[in-house]
């Protein structure tokens, strides 16, 4: 590399600067955090050039090392990632960073290697990820997450944490009392839907002041880190959703109600919406954005703002919709002259019958310049809306992979679509697509499909799936003499489970054992929460599993690789989840047969309970599948305040079970975690099987309302328990994975 390519860039004193940072300090800090043994071996330098590009080369001179030149800080991070993955054979995963295993001396690259992003924005997060996955994260978890993102080249992440702190100040200034504000805010695990104006208020206790303050302080660290890593944080704005009491203070304000949502009772939904053409809206927007700017500096001009996410507009009149967005955007521009409005495009899919082409055009049309808005085409891999909206009528938009609802954990993916559809959209004529990114509701499992899309964002041609998966597996299990059976296992999964072309099941597959038991309505569901298994378990999961166990036998070192142990548990988990369906269908067949007795039903129910029991035992062997982690993270935020910790634990439990005081969105965010499967799900199925047997014994009729009420009560009780107070509730892993896997293989394969 020629020295004159290097452009000396002065170190900026402040971390928070207007527009993307040009300081490389954040990248050097990342190296220090992740690859400390090589902290003096990397040289980064900014060069001039369009877009986000990097060049990796061997550093000239005696000391060796690697030089990465880049046009942006984000591109430098991506250049580093390209080096460590392609030449170093290591990676950073959701299960942990293995970058500290990078070899010494550093492998050289020989001929310099270039890379460029094919899109301006690489985006990450859904508003609800902040609850489904990150609700109880402390800064160390955020730090790992942001390194994961930065290295993959993400430059546009959402930053919702701590939103309420400033919102409360805005409401106080507007004359609302603390009690009135408290009655509006939702619980610590449910803030996303309050921010969307879907719900208001709390169950299980008001949002504690300490939570509000601590989250705000946390976000100051998060935003600073994002900026330092070359990302533009997307901060919130004032949406228009207000406490009911706003009408007390401003009786003449134009306030309407949003819609009823998710089966919640009126006091928890029908959220008041201050219409943007009311002067008060602009006043509150000015108040919000200027306070936010004072808190975070000029870290961004891009604001996330959703008014109609699963929330119907007061009127469908196109002039009204135009009026709403016109005044909304005016208010943003008055507060920040460079404001850009980012919107989740979920509404256009979820409420497609309301959002006709005319209405979408009117609503987007209130923002005059196309560059002043970014629409997230939220579910591009399965239900893209950009075609029917004519590329969002010219507005900037981002091709997003949603894939995971509620942090559910079943296997599913469509690598062929990820390798072709974003490129087709980008290269289509008249396209205003400007980015690619991830909008998963929860970050849980199926990691390969997310890696794949973020990598496709740096390749102008379709990634070759076979060689991609091979390289991915090789660095996921970075041991010498990796048995080929490990590659075979992933070859099977990537061409079947992760090449799912069944259009009815384009999202993580939910397991029926996570649903409230019933004699019907569980199996073969399609659409939003599919339970239909779109592949043949016996010719996919089974050989993948036996190939993984063969690999572990051939080279036992594999079991010390955390990602291998994770994948092994995950594949066996999926086997049991699928076998449960067969056991369930056998139970129902027996129950429906004319010869059924209490004893025969009890006996047909036993395999279901056996599966849940052994699954729980399996999950206990791996730290990534523990309910106790979710609860421990929540409680840790309370320090020594037990009242506060209990409040947080209730929120943590309720989200993954009843999701509402009375099971309003029951089991939406269900998880396959040790301590949840073996207590809650097992209890429900035990209760259900006993109920079916009792029916045969008593000669009574099946009463779905009665049994569902009984199951709901189990949930209400479970949600208020405190972890560690029941027998067998450990905080840490229990048991040896291979012992449990061998037991399962013998019985359930
Ligand atoms: C790689 O980057 C260098 C420096 O910007 C440039 O001169 C060269 O043309 C690039 N090569 C390719 C193949 O893009
Ligand atoms: C509301 O409007 C009424 C009628 O125009 C007016 O009399 C009243 O003063 C207004 N109240 C406030 C608080 O502005
Ligand atoms: C909003 O809904 C609440 C509760 O359903 C109701 O009391 C109130 O009158 C409604 N407000 C408007 C403006 O429709
Ligand atoms: C943000 O930028 C504006 C305009 O450049 C400037 O007046 C203001 O002081 C900056 N605010 C902060 C907190 O840096
Ligand atoms: C927007 O709606 C308000 C309330 O109906 C009305 O006063 C205003 O004139 C409208 N503005 C435009 C530009 O349509
Ligand atoms: C579910 O689908 C499978 C495969 O098509 C079929 O064998 C089974 O009978 C179906 N079960 C129910 C309850 O619909
Ligand atoms: C799959 O294998 C199991 C266990 O050997 C067997 O009971 C089942 O019938 C097989 N299912 C299919 C669809 O072949
Ligand atoms: C590994 O997978 C291949 C391909 O499906 C299969 O033929 C083979 O039997 C599997 N090996 C083991 C040990 O299960
Ligand atoms: C403990 O937390 C509760 C609930 O948030 C709060 O009301 C109380 O003031 C806290 N106690 C202390 C000593 O901070
Ligand atoms: C069956 O009868 C027993 C004893 O009377 C009673 O406790 C139970 O609730 C009954 N269950 C059903 C499902 O009929």
TrEMBL record:
Residues 122-459 form the Alpha-N-acetylglucosaminidase tim-barrel domain. Gene3D superfamilies: Chitobiase/beta-hexosaminidase domain 2-like, Glycosidases, N-acetyl-b-d-glucoasminidase. It holds the Pfam family NAGLU. InterPro entries: Hex-like_dom2, NAGLU, NAGLU_C, NAGLU_N, NAGLU_tim-barrel. Keywords: Hydrolase, Signal. It comes from the Eukaryota. GO terms for molecular function: hydrolase activity. Transmembrane segments: none annotated. Residues 26-107 form the Alpha-N-acetylglucosaminidase N-terminal domain. Residues 468-743 form the Alpha-N-acetylglucosaminidase C-terminal domain. This is Glycoside hydrolase family 89 protein. Residues 1-19 form the signal peptide. The keyword Endoplasmic reticulum does not apply. It comes from Wolfiporia cocos (strain MD-104).
């Amino acid at each position: 590399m020629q020295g004159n390519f290097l452009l000396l860039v002065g170190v900026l004193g402040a971390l928070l600067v207007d527009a993307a940072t040009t300081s490389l300090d954040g990248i050097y800090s990342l190296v220090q955090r992740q690859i400390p043994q090589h902290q003096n071996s990397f040289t980064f330098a900014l060069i001039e050039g369009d877009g986000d590009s990097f060049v990796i080369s061997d550093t000239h001179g005696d000391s060796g090392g690697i030089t990465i030149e880049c046009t942006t800080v984000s591109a430098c991070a991506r250049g580093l990632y390209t080096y460590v993955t392609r030449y170093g054979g290591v990676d950073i995963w959701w299960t942990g960073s293995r970058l500290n295993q990078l070899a010494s001396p550093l492998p050289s690259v020989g001929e310099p290697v270039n890379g460029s992003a094919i899109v301006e924005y690489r985006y990450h997060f859904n508003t609800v990820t902040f609850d489904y996955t990150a609700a109880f994260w402390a800064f160390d978890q955020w730090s790992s997450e942001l390194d994961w993102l930065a290295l993959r080249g993400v430059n546009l992440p959402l930053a919702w944490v701590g939103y309420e702190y400033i919102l409360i100040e805005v409401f106080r200034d507007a004359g609302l009392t603390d009690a009135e504000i408290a009655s509006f805010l939702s619980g610590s695990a449910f803030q996303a839907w309050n921010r969307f104006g879907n719900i208001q208020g709390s169950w299980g206790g008001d949002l504690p002041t300490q939570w509000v303050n601590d989250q705000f302080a946390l976000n100051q660290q998060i935003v600073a880190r994002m900026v330092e890593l070359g990302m533009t944080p997307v901060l919130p704005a004032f949406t228009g959703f207000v406490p009911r009491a706003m009408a007390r203070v401003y009786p003449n304000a134009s306030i309407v109600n949003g819609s009823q949502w998710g089966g919640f009772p009126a006091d928890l939904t029908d959220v008041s919406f201050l219409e943007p053409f009311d002067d008060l809206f602009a006043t509150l927007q000015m108040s919000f954005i200027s306070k936010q700017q004072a808190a975070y500096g000029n870290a961004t001009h891009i604001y996330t703002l959703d008014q109609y996410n699963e929330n119907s507009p007061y009127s469908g009149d196109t002039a009204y919709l135009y009026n709403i967005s016109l005044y909304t955007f005016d208010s943003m521009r008055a507060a920040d002259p460079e404001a850009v409005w980012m919107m989740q495009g979920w509404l256009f899919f979820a409420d497609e019958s309301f959002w006709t082409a005319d209405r979408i055009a009117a609503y987007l049309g209130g923002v005059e310049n196309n560059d002043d808005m970014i629409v997230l085409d939220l579910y591009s891999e399965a239900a893209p809306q950009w075609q029917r909206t004519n590329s969002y009528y010219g507005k900037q938009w981002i091709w997003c992979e949603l894939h995971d609802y509620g942090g559910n954990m079943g296997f599913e993916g469509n690598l062929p679509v990820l390798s072709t559809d974003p490129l087709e959209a980008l290269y289509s004529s008249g396209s205003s697509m400007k980015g690619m990114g991830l909008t998963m509701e929860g970050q849980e499992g199926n990691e390969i499909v997310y890696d794949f899309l973020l990598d496709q964002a740096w390749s102008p041609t379709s990634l070759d799936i076979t060689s991609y998966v091979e390289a991915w597996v090789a660095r996921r299990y970075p041991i010498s003499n990796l048995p080929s059976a490990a590659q075979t296992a992933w070859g099977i999964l990537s061409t079947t489970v992760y090449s799912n072309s069944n259009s009815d099941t384009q999202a993580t597959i939910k397991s029926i054992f996570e649903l409230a038991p019933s004699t019907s309505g569980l199996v073969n569901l399609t659409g939003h929460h599919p339970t239909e298994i779109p592949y043949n378990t016996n010719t996919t999961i089974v050989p993948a599993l036996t190939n993984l166990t063969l690999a572990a036998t051939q080279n036992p070192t594999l079991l010390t690789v955390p990602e291998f142990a994770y994948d092994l548990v995950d594949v066996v988990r999926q086997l049991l989840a699928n076998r449960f369906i067969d056991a369930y269908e056998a139970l129902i067949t027996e129950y429906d047969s004319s010869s059924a007795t209490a004893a025969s039903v009890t006996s047909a129910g036993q395999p279901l309970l056996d599966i849940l029991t052994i699954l729980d035992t399996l999950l206990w062997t791996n730290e990534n599948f523990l309910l106790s982690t979710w609860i421990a993270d929540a409680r840790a935020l309370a320090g020594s305040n037990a009242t506060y910790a209990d409040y947080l634990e209730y929120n943590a439990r309720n989200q993954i079970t009843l999701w509402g005081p009375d099971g309003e969105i029951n089991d939406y965010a269900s998880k396959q975690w040790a301590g949840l499967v073996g207590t809650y799900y097992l209890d429900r199925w035990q209760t259900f099987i006993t109920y079916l047997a009792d029916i045969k014994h008593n000669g009574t009729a099946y009463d779905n309302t009665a049994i569902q009420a009984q199951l709901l009560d189990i949930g209400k009780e479970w949600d208020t328990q405190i972890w560690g107070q029941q027998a067998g509730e450990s905080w840490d892993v229990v048991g040896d994975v291979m012992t449990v896997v061998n037991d399962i293989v013998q019985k359930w394969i």
